[in-house]
Write a structure and sequence with these properties.
Blueprint (H helix, E strand, L loop, with lengths): L12 E2 L3 E3 L3 E3 L2 E8 L5 E5 H7 L8 H12 L5 H13 L3 E2 L25 E5 L4 H12 L5 H20 L1 H11 L3 H28 L4 E9 L2 E8 L8 H28 L4 H20 L8 H10 L4 H13 L10 H36 L1
Antiparallel strand pairs: 1-6, 2-4, 3-4, 4-5, 7-8, 8-9
C-alpha cells in the first residue's frame, strides 16, 4: 500500500462480483471460499478473515470493524495487523473505493476471454455466445417442471420404472447383450444415450439458474473417440442455500431418468416387434446405469458434489483420506479434529466403502450372469 491506512477514515468495500461461500470443512479447519468472478480467481480464508471480509460493505471504517472483531474474538487488531489483510485483498483486486494494490504485488487484470482449445484429438468449442442467456431461456420454458406439484409425480413414476426394471433385470441384461449384435439398433441406442448426456448437462445449468446461478459456457468437449456436451456453472459453490447446490448437482441424474420415462411407457404399453422391444430394454438399463453412476460419491462425479454439500465440506475426499491415515496411525493430530469434522469424514469414508462394495457385488453378479448365459 502506498500510504498508511487510517482506520478512522478508510471504509473497505468488496468489489461487485466477489462471492463468499458459507462455512465449509477443510481438513480440521473451517474455511470460506472467496471468488472474484471478474478474474476467475478463488482462494480460501479462515473464520477470522471471513468475519472481517464479510463486513466490508463500505459502511464501516477499519476502526468499527476492529471493534466488532474485538467483541467477537476478544482481541483487538492493531493498525499493523490490517496491512497484510488489506494487502492480500488488494493484490487480488477485491477492494473498491480504496487501496487496491500493494508494492511488488500488482493488481491482477481481468483476463480476456480465451478461445476454446481445439485440436484433432482433444479440445472444446462453445456452442452459444451467451450461455447464461441461453440457460435463462431454457429455465423460463421448463420452470414448471421444478414445481413440487409436477416434479413429485414425475419422480414417483421414475421410482415405479426403476422397480419394474429391477424385477426384470435378467431380461434386460439379455436384451443388452443382444443389442451388441445389431449395429443399427446399437447406433440408435447410443445416439439416444448421447442425447441424454446433453440434457444432463443442460439440466445442471437450468437448475443452477433457478437458484440464482450463472452459466458461463455451454459447449462440446472431445477426447476422441468420445464427444460430450458440457455446461459450466461459474458459481456453484456460492449458490444461496445448501438445497440449491444439492439440487443443481443432482439435476443431471434426475434428467437422465426422466428422459427414460417415455421409452418405458412405449415398451410397456405399445405393441412392438421383438428387436425394438429388446433395444428399448437395453436403453432403459443402460440409461439407468448412466444416471446412477453419476451419483456415485467419488470425484469428479455429481454424487461427490452432493456428498460434499450434505456434509458441508470442500475437498472432501482428500480431507477424509488425510484424517483416516492419521486415525489409523493413532497420530495425535487426529484428536485435534473437531467432532463435526470427524463425523463427516468417518461418514464419507464408510459410505464410500459401502458404495464400492455394492458396485463390486454388482460386477460379480453381471459376470456370473453373462458366463451362465454363454454356456
Amino acid at each position: 500500500m502506498t500510504a498508511a491506512v487510517s482506520p478512522a477514515h478508510y471504509r473497505p468495500e468488496l468489489r461487485a462480483g466477489v462471492l463468499v461461500s458459507e462455512p465449509l470443512l477443510h481438513g480440521p479447519d473451517i474455511v470460506h471460499l472467496i471468488k472474484n468472478t471478474e478474474s476467475g480467481q478463488s482462494f480460501k480464508v479462515g473464520t477470522k478473515e471471513h468475519f472481517l471480509i464479510s463486513r466490508m460493505d463500505g459502511t464501516r471504517t477499519l476502526e468499527e470493524l476492529g471493534t466488532q472483531y474485538a467483541g467477537h474474538f476478544g482481541r483487538r487488531l492493531a493498525d499493523a495487523n490490517w496491512q497484510p489483510i488489506l494487502a492480500m485483498l488488494g493484490a487480488r483486486g477485491l477492494l473498491t473505493g480504496g487501496p487496491t494494490t500493494v508494492p511488488g504485488h500488482p493488481q491482477p487484470q481481468s483476463p480476456q476471454p480465451e478461445a476454446p482449445a481445439r485440436g484433432l484429438l482433444r479440445g472444446s468449442i462453445r456452442l452459444v455466445a451467451d450461455a447464461d442467456a441461453t440457460a435463462a431461456r431454457l429455465h423460463r420454458a421448463t420452470r414448471f417442471l421444478l414445481s413440487p406439484w409436477t416434479l413429485l409425480p414425475l419422480l414417483t413414476l421414475v421410482a415405479v420404472m426403476e422397480v419394474n426394471l429391477l424385477m426384470r433385470l435378467g431380461e434386460l441384461l439379455d436384451a443388452t447383450a443382444d443389442l451388441f449384435t445389431n449395429p443399427a439398433l446399437l447406433m440408435a441406442v447410443a445416439t439416444l444415450l448421447w442425447l441424454s448426456t446433453a440434457l444432463h448437462e443442460l439440466a445442471h445449468g437450468v437448475v443452477a439458474r433457478h437458484y440464482g446461478g450463472r452459466v458461463t459456457e455451454i459447449g462440446l468437449r472431445w477426447r476422441l473417440p468420445v464427444v460430450i456436451m458440457y455446461c459450466t456453472v461459474d458459481n456453484f459453490l456460492h449458490l444461496h442455500g445448501r438445497w440449491g447446490r444439492i439440487a443443481t448437482a443432482g439435476a443431471g441424474a434426475v434428467m437422465n431418468l426422466l428422459f427414460l420415462l417415455p421409452f418405458f411407457a412405449v415398451r410397456s404399453l405399445a405393441p412392438l416387434d421383438p428387436a425394438t422391444h429388446q433395444a428399448l430394454g437395453a436403453l432403459l438399463l443402460l440409461g439407468s446405469l448412466q444416471a446412477f453412476t453419476m451419483l456415485i460419491p467419488l470425484p469428479p462425479l455429481d454424487g461427490y458434489k452432493i456428498a460434499g454439500q450434505l456434509l458441508g465440506a470442500t475437498e472432501l475426499a482428500a480431507s477424509t483420506g488425510a484424517y483416516v491415515r492419521l486415525a489409523i496411525r493413532r497420530d495425535q493430530a487426529a484428536t485435534g479434529y473437531p467432532g463435526r469434522a470427524r463425523r463427516a469424514y468417518i461418514a464419507y469414508g464408510l459410505g464410500t466403502l459401502l458404495v464400492l462394495g455394492a458396485l463390486a457385488t454388482a460386477a460379480v453378479f453381471l459376470v456370473h450372469h453373462f458366463l451362465t448365459a454363454a454356456q
